[in-house]
Amino acid sequence: MGVSPLSPPLAAANDDEAELVALAQRDRRAFASLYTRYFDAVYRYCYRRLGIPELAADATSQTFAKALAALATCRGETFRSWLFAIAHNVLTDRFRTDRFDQSLESAAEVADAAPSPEDLAVVAEERSTLVRLLVQLQPEQRQILELRLAGLTSKEIAAALGRTPNAVDQAQFRAVNRLRALLAASGQDRGTEVSR
Length: 196
Known about the structure:
Elements: H1 8-13, H2 17-26, H3 31-50, H4 53-69, H5 79-98, H6 117-120, H7 127-135, H8 139-149, H9 154-161, H10 165-185
């Protein structure tokens, strides 16, 4: 029974990422399955970093365009971290070229069903307190938390940033401890546990 590479039953049955990547490398139209699977996560990551929907949509488009153009260089088992490394580089390039310095305060109004900074650290009752605290983190620590919020594992974050998983875990641990200390210093500490 012949099945088109783009047919929904094949895409639904083909949960193995390596196979999806291999299929997309043979037939570019099959990249649509990878695009559909990761669009929301990449967009949320870009939106958290940029804070403006239009800029996030543009960065997301650039990420997928670059991924499609370089798909031949991707190993299937590392697609997700490879894709987020591209997204990270697109955002870094945007910050470098535009000298864009968007305040995180605009993210305080973001209502997102995905994990938020409150899920990873002790939070104040008001989001604005957390936003001020995140701004005080070192850029690397903030990037790690943002990638963690996008749903990446330590191993995937390490691949995206060119670090070891151990270094990512240590930086995340220091970031969470720094957030705790800042939260306590601001008088907002209520004894909430931090999840890693």
